[in-house]
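ok, trying the design again with the full structure, not the truncated one.
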């Protein structure tokens, strides 16, 4: 078996060392952490639970919620003066 030498930041090495099981090599722990299995994704179980009608209802309620928030949120005519905004720089003129 061939091997490669890589450089790691000390913090990364420490995290790998902590993640390593008693009988695992660093290659084993990297392989385990990089393993992609569609069935193991935490959101995988949600696929197919909502019907298209359910999703349409969620989208509509979301649009209504956003419209209500926008209606309640006052729009400022001019932004407030901040530490980088002075009277000379276009601030409030205080």
């Amino acid at each position: 078996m061939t091997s490669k030498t890589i450089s790691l930041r000390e913090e990364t090495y420490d995290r790998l060392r902590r993640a390593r099981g008693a009988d695992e090599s660093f290659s084993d722990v990297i392989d385990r952490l990089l393993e992609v299995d569609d069935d193991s994704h935490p959101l995988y179980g949600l696929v197919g639970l909502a019907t298209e009608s359910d999703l349409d209802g969620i989208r509509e309620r979301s649009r209504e919620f956003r419209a209500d928030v926008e209606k309640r949120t006052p729009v400022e005519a001019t932004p407030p003066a901040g530490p980088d905004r002075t009277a000379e720089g276009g601030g409030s003129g205080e």
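Keeping the full-length input from now on. The mean pLDDT is 81.
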